[in-house]
Amino acid sequence: MRRDLLLLLVIAAAALGIRTYPAWNNVFTAAGINFLETDAWYHVRLIENQVRNYPWRVTLDPFAAPGGQFVPIAPLFDTITSTAVVVLHGRDADTGEVERVAAFVPPVLGTLAVIVVWALARQLFDRRAGLLAASLLAILPGHFLDRTMLGFVDHHALEALMAMATLLAFSRGVTTPSPSMSLLAGVGLGLYLLGWGSGAFLIAVIGVWLLLLAALSRSSESLCNAAQLTGVAALVALLLVGAFQDSRMHRYESQVLGLVGLAGLSVAIRLVAGRRISVPSKGVVLGASGVLAVMATVIVSLVTPELATQLAIDLGRLAPDPRRMGVLEARPLFLYSGEWRWAQPWSFFRTGFFIGCAALLPFSLRVWKQRRPADVLLLVFAVVTLVATIGQNRFGYYLVPACAVLGGWLAMQLLDWGGVPHAENPTPRAHTRLPLAREVAIVAVAGAMFAPNMSLTLLLAERSASFPSYWRDTMDWLRRQTPEPFAPSAGAGDDYYFARYPRDMAPRPDYSIMSWWDQGYWLTQRARRVPVANPTQQRAPNAARFYSATTESEAVELLREERTRFVISDWELPFRRLQDGTIMGRFQNILDWAGADHTGYYEIVYRRNQDGWAPQWVFHERYYRSMAYRLSVLGGAASVPVNASAVVTLVDRIDANGRRFREVLTQVTYGSYALAQQAAAASTVAQTFIVGLDPWLPAFPLDAVTSFVEVHGARTADQKPSEAPWVRVFEVRSDAAGGLRPF
Description:
By secondary structure, the chain is of the alpha+beta class. Among the domains are: about 160-275; about 470-570 and about 705-730, Rossmann fold (3-Layer(aba) Sandwich); about 575-690, no CATH class. Strand 11 (about 645-655) and strand 12 form a beta hairpin. Helix 10 (about 200-215) packs antiparallel against helix 13. The model has no long low-confidence stretch (mean pLDDT about 90).
């Protein structure tokens, strides 16, 4: 055991190093602390405030959105981090000290998860499987490694840790039943739910496991023990959630209902199975469970239809949604790049994904033969996380630990098959007569399972930060050069950012800042200003309607409703053409959130060539009149098109699969818009249009936007003076804003 602990210490040290070294230079920069993803900035905002008001945390944040926004983040991760800051630096810690501590929390949690996976695999199988599983998890690339990296300040690392800790407690509890293990299982499940608001996911996994046990268990005693363990754990977790989770938390009802349902299911199975001395009647147990499930569904639908609707929406999240395609982590695994790619699992996970999938079949056979409750739990967790990851790739940080445990077991089986000696059996016999079986087994484990993941270029690849220098420059400018959003109304000035706010009411800011929702958390934490929209996407339609607005009057009216004084536009909002001809940009996502018809702004048509059909983008007048284009590309200036106005004639077609498309019959680009108008008027083809072929060059004459004045442009040293700034900031003229000015 001492040697195993020493090996585990080496594995944990390697895991910590792999999670800190690659990102170090991009997180700790001369300009300040950077983070690896957007949500980190809001976690730091919450941690900063909690440190100053320790142990109280923000629940209704006036800096998150106009009128405030309930903090939709479970409290445990921020509370752990703020506690570490208070212990190390006190309640008066400055922002830099808070950011440095926060940056280290994910790799520490990830390293602890490696240790928990070692304990889980050791509990389920043997010491070799534990060490192999821990080694795999330490090095496997993918979502777990990314989310436990230095600077990835988010609750996902804590989720993975507590999920595996909960599985460990349940596995020990069904193997060696005791009140203490039931209590630990409940504490683990409760802490998991306090770490993730949508944690009913794990409750569902445990519920499915218990139902499967009712069908698979060969022993009444084993089933009773599992039901009793689950029931006690559910009640303990319910006490923790009731005591520490805010009842206004999104999906709070799902957590409570899930725990109550899990406890009820446990009681039903315990009562029915406990009436039998030998093997319980599976029909009776499953029938009782089914009746209970149907009754619960009917009651929930009648009493809380909103909750039933939310549960249906949550299940539907596994299906592709055009709006969620704008969020990379919410994309389906095989559609991550925007088109189906079979190689995507290799790109993300290397061998980890395939190790897990390869192990599922033989492990399922083991489960079927042995019917061990702990094995069934691991199988259910692995299958559910695999399906969830295929639906939304973000769940990969659950899948990778599951694959590591299965991989540890598979490696152990391969080594036993080849007769590889180990401490418990120094002279084993191979389970095959094949020559060189021992060597084949070692090569299979070392060469196929470990080696592809151990490339230094892969393990130590530099991690890029989420905060480009031009955005940092913009946020710092806003903080220095714009008024405090609550100065006159709240009377607290800069200190209001650290105030302890009321739980049920937030003052409206004196003004807000319009930006795309991606930058909302930067505005809140770095600039300490109030964004119209943020990455919760609750107010994303408000921002989308502004950026897709095609008239100045419509845009100004939307800003007036939001009490907006400054508008931010950036180079990624409109479309742009890359050197290889690919069209990129966020404009499609803007239209999705605005609920606008895409074909009114742009469309993809087709031209014949020697290879068949070639797609071509054409951009209509509404695209060039959108605020996203006029502010980002033109800076609000007037434009006269030169050699950019094209006249196209189109005809409707239907392909062999019955899908409609439009073919380009003719296409001519004119030197001026007036010439294009004349040509279009002279055409005898019904579907004749003036369009633009380049999303960055104006194809229609545009008047200047007079309601906005550009007050800041963020550039980098490598830009040409003729190029548009990466980011522009506009101030809304007071007369356009209806005279709204706080000073």
